[in-house]
Design brief:
The protein contains twelve helices and three strands, in the order αααααααααβααββα. Helix 4 packs parallel to helix 6 and helix 5 packs across helix 7 (98-111). It is elongated, with a radius of gyration of 23 Å. It folds into two domains: 9-123, no CATH class; 133-260, Arc Repressor Mutant, subunit A (Orthogonal Bundle), CATH 1.10.10. Helix content is 45%, strand content 5%. It has a three-stranded antiparallel beta sheet. The protein starts with a helix and ends in a 16-residue tail after the last helix. With 261 residues, the protein is mainly alpha-helical.
């Protein structure tokens, strides 16, 4: 077993003397490089979890992952008022889940003095209300240009890129080609039939707003204005994206055919 008094600075070693696994004690050693306050915050997060080693290790691992995302020159101890509620949420999250990555990303903003101002206190509550598909939609809207989406209500033709193209081709002479940089692609969602629900929910949270920009339809001779709308991130939504979504690896957003089975 690790001798924490040898492996860790004296004050940190005292914090880690409680019943922790070797893996958690090693994370204490790494976190101690940030400072005593960071180690104390980790200890507070682990205090209710001493009865289960697996939960301890998972929470400590997420804490370290968030710290590692901040560059050493900008790394600071996150405010306990931010870190502790996030770590409480992470107790119930599975590794590899998109929402887990979002929580870790928000915590990493608290570790980075150049990003601390992005970590709005409302974001923790907002994340708990979002589905993975809604996170995917927020990520697809990142940027200044609005995107169009099809279907006032859920319809079969709005649920895949192929069916959208087929639907649009029914009323034009020239084959339709869609620039998916300008249009929300339902293939990027696990449950595309709920796209209209996602849009309404994200709008109610203040994360997206409707726009009158129908650039996709302009000049194409299409008569689908009553079936096409434009949406974009609000300023608050852009801040949420920057704090919680932007730094998440792209592969975390991917939806495979196996996911839809």
């Amino acid at each position: 077993m690790m001798d924490v008094n040898v492996q860790l600075p004296a004050e940190i070693g005292e914090l880690a003397k409680e019943v922790y696994s070797d893996g958690v004690k090693e994370i204490f050693r790494e976190i101690s490089k940030i400072g005593v306050d960071a180690a104390k915050t980790l200890r507070l997060a682990l205090a209710p979890l001493q009865f289960t080693a697996m939960l301890q290790e998972n929470v400590a691992m997420y804490f370290k992952q968030a710290a590692d995302k901040a560059s050493p020159k900008n790394r600071v101890c996150p405010a306990p008022s931010l870190a502790l509620p996030i770590l409480e949420k992470l107790r119930y999250q599975e590794d590899g889940d998109l929402l887990t990555d979002i929580y870790v990303e928000l915590l990493s903003a608290g570790f980075d003095k150049s990003r601390m101002g992005d970590a709005h206190p409302a974001f923790l509550t907002i994340i708990s209300q979002l589905s993975p598909d809604e996170i995917r939609l927020i990520n697809s809207l990142a940027g200044s240009a609005p995107k169009n989406y099809f279907g006032r209500v859920a319809s079969n033709w709005t649920q895949s890129s192929k069916s959208i193209i087929e639907h649009l081709n029914e009323s034009v002479l020239e084959p339709v080609e869609i620039d998916w940089n300008l249009v929300v692609n339902p293939d990027e969602l696990l449950w595309p039939l709920h796209l209209q629900v996602y849009v309404g929910h994200l709008h109610s949270l203040g994360l997206i707003e409707y726009d009158n920009d129908l650039k996709y339809l302009s000049g194409r001779g299409l008569n689908h204005g009553n079936e096409c709308w434009a949406i974009k991130l609000s300023e608050f939504g852009s801040l949420f994206h920057r704090a919680c979504v932007k730094g998440v690896p792209l592969e975390s957003f991917a939806v495979t055919p196996q996911d839809r089975i």
